[in-house]
């Protein structure tokens, strides 16, 4: 009996649907890697489908409300994920062809025992979407952002900035690197542009990160230009002891080691610490690594500096993780605010008198940034704000507020490069007693 041959493209469609289904269920998005899909072209296409569906989530919501008169079927396996991928292809990726979107969607749900009874509905919905694809393609970009976030961000950053947020969401994030050494030849080999300090940017690449020049030799590490700001603001003498709380995967740890500090990198997650150790080994750095809870860690000797990159809503990372736009509620943020306060309090306890504390979050929410500064100054006697001066961030003066805090967002332009960077908040304190 002849072996059944699967239609071309079905395997990657099924993998993409499973990945999108997990994200819709609340998991953090991670691109399919070589271990999950060996063929580089298939992997790139699968990831393109998933990221497009995630970036266009708000617009696809509106389409679904129109196309599914009775709403999304309950307990329908991968039906929703397959449908979202197919709508993303039909409307926003026309270069991939409409026929494959319809055919592979129907074939994909037929392979799912929980969804195969919906194959006819899938076909009917997508044919209707195809006839309306031109209209859907002109949907308002304001739909890309949840209304509550758009309103809050407009109040905080202005309407022009929020309009640019939507554009950067669709564009996605380029690859930013921090260099171990200033090497003009390496920058040229990478095809990168310089941003600020030792950060460079690769706008377009045709190979995995691990295949880029200098990776095996540990000559750089991946780090968004905004994420590289906090460690540069520690401002202590070389040889000072610095505790990096919530350190994994280690970008800021590497910066602190590079600056000449005696670094202790702490994290409570053993798997993330293993990744940090691997990154440090590749770079040739050897910080002290501690597995412990950052909220209760009690060092024998206080540190000259503490850098706390606290767990947060991560709304500032939406260019790479668009799912955060739709998975963060007011209750979620309130829970993170409580955790951040516990971590700030313990970071203060770990700090020697006269020492410097850097608090940062990759969040655009004022509750996790400016509001936390006000809380810390009231709740922790002996802690004072150590304002950041504009001169400390050449090429990014717009990120320094009148209070000496640092607030970046995706509409900002680092240096003279192309616009776009993560949303980050940074505050610097000193322990006076």
UniProtKB/TrEMBL annotation:
S-adenosyl-L-methionine binds at residues 246-252, 267, 293, 309. InterPro entries: MeTrfase_RsmB-F_NOP2_cat (IPR049560), MeTrfase_RsmB-F_NOP2_dom (IPR001678), NusB-like_sf (IPR035926), NusB_RsmB_TIM44 (IPR006027), RCMT (IPR023267), SAM-dependent_MTases_sf (IPR029063). Keywords: Methyltransferase, RNA-binding, S-adenosyl-L-methionine, Transferase. The active site is at 362 (nucleophile). It comes from the Bacteria. Residues 137-432 form the SAM-dependent MTase RsmB/NOP-type domain. One of its GO terms (molecular function) is RNA methyltransferase activity. The keyword Signal does not apply. GO terms for biological process: regulation of DNA-templated transcription; RNA methylation. Belongs to the class I-like SAM-binding methyltransferase superfamily. RsmB/NOP family. This is 16S rRNA (Cytosine967-C5)-methyltransferase. It comes from Devosia lucknowensis. The lineage of its organism: Bacteria, Pseudomonadati, Pseudomonadota, Alphaproteobacteria, Hyphomicrobiales.
